[in-house]
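Table S2 (continued). Query chain:
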Amino acid sequence: MLAGAGTGKTRVITYRIAHLIVNKEVSAGNILAVTFTNKAAGEMKSRLHELIGGLANGVWMGTFHSICLGILRNEAEYAGLPKSFSIVDQEDRLAILRQIIKSLNIDIEKYKPKLYLHNISSFKNTEDYVKNENINNNLYKIKDIYQMYQKELELQRLVDFDDMIALCVRIFANYPDILKKYQDIYKYILVDEYQDTNAVQFRLLYMLAGISGNLCVVGDDDQSIYGWRGAEVRNILEFDKVFENVKEIKLEGNYRSGKSILSIANRLIECNDNRRGKTLEASAEKQSEVKKFIFSDGIAEAEFTANTILEKYKNGESFADIAILYRTNAQSLNFEKALKKANIPYKVIGNIGFYQRREIKDILAYLKFSDNPKDAQSFFRSISVPKRGIGNSTNDKIISYAEENDITILETLETDLKFLSKSRAAVDRYIQLIHDIIKCERIKDKIELIIDTIKYKEYIHHLDEELDILKSKEENINMLISEADDFDEKSGSSLSDFLANTTLLASSDTESAENTVKLMTMHAAKGLEFKLVFLTGLEEGLFPLSDENGYIDDIEEERRLCYVGVTRAMETLFLTSARYRKNKGFPVYPKPSSFLSELQFGRSFKFNKGSTKNTFTNKSGNYADYIKNTSNSEKKEYNDDNSASFKTSSKVYHTVFGEGIVLFSEGSGENEKVTVLFKKEGVKKIIANFLEKV
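Corresponding output:
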């Protein structure tokens, strides 16, 4: 089932299970329902109990991992595991890797255990791992570390989180009789959020169901936004190429949003080529509105948002029904400030408040200590980041000496004390930095001095963090620099004032999420809904997000993310952007997001179910009639198979992107371009001369 946003996916699966048991007299023990989270599984089970009572207890229901863990418990010997194997958690996995890295005399500060864990985890979710091949990437000594890690798991009778699915697939591949046993048990398989499955999860389902089994998947290719985590959108796009006798049902009736919101959502997502196609239509007459605003800068955008929320609240709207969505976590700062100023309660979802983030607190510690050299907490944090070979016991002695002699901690550091003799050089460098910070007049210059002197950006890259987290930290640091630059421009403002403001703001992200405005990224918003949504920062480079060279990793996934943001709104959607922002304190004048023009704000939309293009539903495999829907409905001409260098659905190979399947070609001779769906890289348009037939 292709189930659009707000169409009741979970309800459909639940009712289908009830229908199978009650009306079709299928044994509950022959039904397998798979979800991605324990919360979703619990919700589904609860709904099923409401429908059929105790009969629901017989259904096999859970996450991919919980289902596979049950199989492994039963078939441990076929996976080469002892019956009494244990599951190793993430912290213990890191501890094992830490020991291995140290045993190989690898610099653990330079090569972090979490970096190896991330790479090993990613590898274990590939078919290469299922085939028992060795890991293969360029990370320093990863092959050795991986082999030692696997050996350690074996010695300790451990299975890690990523093994659960892959080992089941390996058992099924090597022991057909075991596979047949579970095929006979799981005769009816239902999967929720199918667009988020990865290669190994797909392989598991493929083996259990077979090409003609009773497999019902529910998902939305237009909400596939986790490609960076390994999710394969092609699993849903190519479903009818893999399985036989496929019946496609489109759930297009949206129970969440009004027509004006759905109309722009439909127009936006139609700009994606790599989709099956459906049109969301409001299932009930619901009043809704969409408004677009362009502001002079990000501060004006945030102030408008806060003032509008306050006005809505005075008119009876609950804070809990309002959300502010943005592309990057760093964008939360302006909104936090504006909401705090307006005394509006808020909660940052999926993250903590801007001034409570580790990288921000690290830099502020230096500023706070330079402003108040008696501040023990700020001294403790700043002297320790990065590590200077000065232990906690030494720091305690420094603080005690300062208190006993009624002098500042900075003065204590400048005193010739015996317990500081071994650390003298490091302490002197720290003292010099604090004095240099004090000498700087502008707060922005102070921050940049700290970052450069302690090489903070290099420091965070050596932290045990994943790449997307490191990128977010850099964005936060750049936002702090811009914020300081803005503060510097206010006459009469001091460092003490700046720090006081950060402290006030840091204390306002309350623990309770009740009756608060929600701030979150669009990734965090998936699956949620609000009466009023502010979709912010709609500018090129910010949304769609690009790197500093203007490169967008996957424009279609960015567009799907925007679609997710739009469809969170039930009644009111505000689209906002700014003409001016700061990056690292420097002015940036971004162009309006291309998504704004694709939304075609203000134009009427003709709802016509099933009218949108359907790239992948032609079961003959002939894509020559592929239509690119544009605003004026022009058709694009594509080659038929007789005039194309590569036939539609034929396999090809590219030296960089690997193997793929031809969707269609256009142009001729040296100008012929072939659109290919690559296994690992998705859809790419390639000049024909650079492709080889397989």
